[in-house]
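INFO  loader      accepted 1 record
INFO  loader      residues=165
INFO  predictor   begin
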Amino acid sequence: MVQVIKRRLKSDLIFDLINAFNSIKSSQESASFLQDILTASEIKNLSIRLRIAKLLLVGEKQRDISLNLRVSIATVTKVNAWLNQKGEGLKQVISRLPQKYDIPINSIGGPLEFHLPEVLAASIQYTFASAQNKKANRFIEGVNEKSLLDKQLKEISDETYKHKG
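INFO  predictor   done
INFO  writer      dumping tokens
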């Protein structure tokens, strides 16, 4: 009977988690939810795993990924195994990721009127990149604040239990 309760509880927990993700309507809601439910370390690890998968799917070599992301080959190999075994969900999500724009850095020489299309394209790209970076930076600030809060809570907890033990 205890086994059934544990299985049912596990099912209920997974049901809530899946439907929590399913209820998210925007990238800001996603950011807020992830920031509220995960620790800074968990966010970092998930972000790295997603990037590893993304790089593997475009054909990057495992050793290059390991060096560039500063993770162990074991981590890259694990993500690669997940992709090869049952990676359909991960592949599907990665295929839907929006393009990340870089802020243009090359200036265009010569008279402006000869380069108007390039200047307009660079201006639009700059606008998109700035908006993306602003959202990401706000998220990072929130994660850093949460990391400090997690550290403070751990210190309080350690101090509390040190006196009780």
